[in-house]
Amino acid sequence: MPAEKETKSLGLLALAGLTPYQPKDDEEYMNDAQMEHFRQILKAWRNQLREEVDRTVTHMKDEAANFPDPVDRAAQEEEFSLELRTRDRERKLIKKIEKTLKRIEEDDFGFCDQCGIEIGIRRLEARPTADLCIDCKTMAEIKEKQLQG
Fold first, then answer.
1. Statement: the pTM of the whole predicted model exceeds 0.85
2. Where in the numbering of this chain does the DnaK suppressor protein DksA N-terminal domain appear (predicted)?
């Protein structure tokens, strides 16, 4: 799973035409250059998701057919249902990206919502919408598992 997240992160960077951010030794955390780096990643990601939505709408319009065979109709409906579920998840992700871009504008990006410490450049490269540090996220996941029983 970590390799998958790393690949996804590298895909986002490639999409944005960026390389992973290399902080300098004396560089302040979440300075203007770092903020701009993540702003570009998030905007490129949001644009890619919006293009997918447009493609889905076009695909569904073009492929919609009233098949006389019930099996063919059911297969098409299932395909469309899967696409719509994926787009719904992406719609939620777009909202989270928008929220993160707003945090960048408000200079509130890169710090944990719960404890206030730095989230870290590498974690943000892997998950640009992260709003919890790794420790707080781990604790939240443990609590969630305990509640689920």
1. no
2. 34-104
115: annotated binding-site residue? yes
Q: Domain count of the chain?
A: 1
Q: What pLDDT digit, counting tens, does each position of 2-13 carry?
A: 444 444 555 666
136 is an annotated ligand-binding site residue: yes
CB distance 38 to 108 below 8 Å: no
Of 96, 131, 106, 102, give the one whose Cα is nearest residue 117: 131
Convert the pLDDT of each residue in 92-104 to its tens digit: 999 999 999 999 9
Check whether 45 is labelled as a binding-site residue.
no
Give Cα separations from 124 to 51, 77, 85, 86, 102 (angstroms). Answer: 23, 38, 26, 23, 16
Domain span at residue 90? 2-148
**68 assigned binding-site residue:** no
CATH of the domain at 46: 1.20.120.910
